Amino acid sequence: MRRLRLAVMAVLALSVSTTAPRAFAQGQTVTGAVETSPGGTTNVPIPGADTVLDRRVRDVSQRLRCPVCQGESIQESPAELAAQMKGVVREQLAAGKSEQDVLNYFLAKYGDWILLEPRAEGINLLVYWIPVIFMLIGGVVLFMTVKKWIKPRPVAGAADDVAPDAAAPAGAELNHV
Q1: Residues 6+ apart with CB under 8 A from 86
Q2: pTM of this prediction?
Q3: Which of 91, 97, 107 is nearest to 44 (CA)?
């Protein structure tokens, strides 16, 4: 009887620990498929409960750089800070902010560095235009090289290369034959 009671308690403890460990750790409450933010102002759906919100969180999270992991987005990063940042993204999107508002929040907090893809403005335009400029220069160089290759080369000993005085006797010999 005692073993059965311990087994039931272990199963209950395991089920509680797998449903909402993050919410309890951050002082949030879980009701059904909704988390309440620590201030109690926003009901944030648990990941997997709202597929549209999950997709939006994933889209925004893929555009933000993880401050801990080198070159990874917060969507891909296993770091705890990335998980917290994804929670902030989820909370702000659930509160009704647009994706651009969320990105602006992280830009104000971390600067341009936080974006995996730099904005196309100011000095960042070089990142977008330098490859195009190099492709154009490469195309012109390739065109000039091909044009030089296919241009007919003068044959050595041709009439154009021979001086007019030297060509006259050869022509004279042909007339005599």
Answers
A1: 57, 61, 74, 75
A2: 0.52
A3: 91
Integer Cα distance of 116 and 75 in angstroms: 12
Q: What integer is the mean pLDDT of 140-156?
A: 90
The Cα–Cα gap between 76 and 140 comes to 41
Q: Summarize pLDDT for 64-104 with one digit per residue, the tens.
A: 999 999 889 999 999 999 999 999 999 999 999 999 999 99
Q: Going by DSSP bridges, is the β-strand pair 43-45/34-36 parallel, antiparallel, or unpaired?
A: antiparallel
DSSP one-letter string for 102-170: HHHHHHHHH-GGGBSS--SSGGGHHHHHHHHHHHHHHHHHHHHHHHHHHSPPPPTT-TTTS-HHHHHHH
pLDDT of residue 20: 39
**Strand partners of residue 44:** 35
E strand or H helix that includes residue 21? helix 21-25
Amino acid at 146: V
The helix/strand/coil state of 70 is coil
